[in-house]
Write a structure and sequence with these properties.
By secondary structure, the chain is of the alpha/beta class. It contains nine helices and eight strands. It has two domains: about 150 residues, Rossmann fold (3-Layer(aba) Sandwich), CATH 3.40.50.1000; about 70 residues. Strands 5-4-1-6-7-8 form a six-stranded parallel β-sheet, sandwiched between helices. It has a two-stranded antiparallel sheet with strand order 2-3. It binds magnesium ion. It holds the Pfam family Hydrolase.
Amino acid sequence: MRPTVLLWDIDGTLLSTGGAGRRAMERAFARYADRRDACEAFSFAGMTDRAIIRTGLETVGREATEDAIDALLAIYVEILAQEMSLAGDTRVHAGVIEALDAAARRAKCAIGLGTGNVRAGAQAKLTRVGIYERFAFGGFGCDHERRDELLRIGAARGAAMLEAPLEACRVVVIGDTPKDIAAARAIGAESLAVATGTYALAELAACAPTHSFTDLRARGALEALLG
Ligand SMILES: [Mg+2]
């Protein structure tokens, strides 16, 4: 079997935080810039944390220096931990646990994250629903501001775990937005799109992912995931 690297998006794909992630970001902007409305006008779907903060800072007329982004990220991570401890409506999406179980049983399969969340944010969200330990590695929002670049980093880490050259591996990006699909294409990976986030199946299919499903319980989804 071909060595396989799975790179899972978090928000809208593995789970929904019921708005806790957005609340944490809004509170971070309120504390840092006294502007809770900084992110009001745009969707976070498919954006990396650094890109969200850069857009928010520009929205409120602040210069988005790397130092400013780092400072806001530190506040966000602290507030996110509080929000996640309160977030009663965080839930794992349908079919995710079964898919992770099936992937864990497959030989030569590295299960990792490909997420715009910084590592500490990813840990807070996934720990809340008890699945953080299932991901041995990842490409994160703290690795790069661009989604394609953080996926490239995650793919290389997965191949290293499998002790296989990256060119010999099948890389599959599992995500819920057009940005996941585009970033997968940019690094030459397959994309498996699920309509469990804010995008409908038809909208995702229009972006020509390798595979698309309503959710991971759909007929053929596990076969598409695992090859
Ligand atoms: Mg997502």
